[in-house]
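Lecture 7 notes: from sequence to structure.

We start with a single chain of 407 residues. Read the sequence below before looking at the structure.
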Amino acid sequence: MRRPLLLALCLAASLARADAAPRREDFGGLVVLHLAGSYEEMGRQQAELLGPELRALYDFQRADYDRSLAELGTSTKLLEPPSIALASAVNDDASGFAATVRGLAAGLGVAPREVLRASFALDAGSTVFVATRGASADGRAIVGRNADWGDAGGLRRPLVLAMRPTNGDLAHLSVAWPLLHLPVIGLNEAGFAISLNYFDTEPLVTLLRPEWPQRRALQTARTVEDGIRVFAETERLGAANFVAMADASGAIALLECRPASGCSVYRPSGDWFAHANHARSASMLPFDRYRSPDSFARQLGMERAVERRLGRITPAVAAEILRDRTGHRFANATSVGNLFVLNACVVQPAAGLLWHSTELQPFAPFGAYVALSPSGDARGAAPLAASPALASEAFARDRDAIARARR
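Now the structure, written as tokens:
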């Protein structure tokens, strides 16, 4: 009896090692990287698994950074080299942000400060809804998120990092694209979900010894209250964000955070909220530089799409909400399901599942959504079906027109 038992244990250990080995999966346009180790090791693994794709995007964003810097004043240009050098030298914190940058830099064969420069060459908007209790079909929390970001002519592909840290942090899924070191949306093995929307304010970032609760909450929090505590205990917030949270118990919240002011916590009076890229709290309104019709229109569109489905929101219905273009005749109008969506995601924390679209920009929300889990086992979860509109003549015409415009 001992021999079969020994063989079984050896087989189990072998399978565990194989599961921990870094690997890449492609689901249509979506890239999923399975990583394990320290954060620096996982940064290097990213570089190795993405290969020439990462190099092409790095070159593009690094050049974009230089163009942006050239448009700024003389004093900014003079201060930039020592500021970036200082940030890349002393910005270690518990989240492993700096370690990730070092790993990516080693894989690319460049200095960490150059990866930081390439990481800053971004600009974007996003729309999210969070529903729970009476707003969802089964009373459990659901998050739906469209991240609107230019795809750099196809160089920026949606990316999910399935991370298994070996330092005791929780396994988690971090959704973004290459060279973005914060999660656009994420879910950990405890059922805590986080979604970050861009907050255009001043200061936008902290370069001297920044802390990254956007990452640390995903690595350690088990509840919304845990997540709020991680942000509240942060002394030097690395970047401004609107932060939506949900957990397996059904709790939800929204934080509005900027480096100089900490975070304001918004707790909805009802069972759901939607948010785009403008502040709603009195303490943050004076610092909001993006009170744009675009942000208000996307948030209103999301709110109306959710309202029509209150009480029956499931993951499949959440995907329908992310595709909403109600009231818009043209594909390039400001809508929830607009042409600039890069990451389209649905999260159900209590089920431990995150669904991400497999379709690329410009029709990301309309594709099929593959199910993923921080535990690494989503085999029993069905994908969310693609929208029938994706195969329509109208979409075919739009796709052709967009392709010709990009040439």
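The CA atoms of residues 64 and 203 lie 21 Å apart. Keep this in mind for problem set 3.
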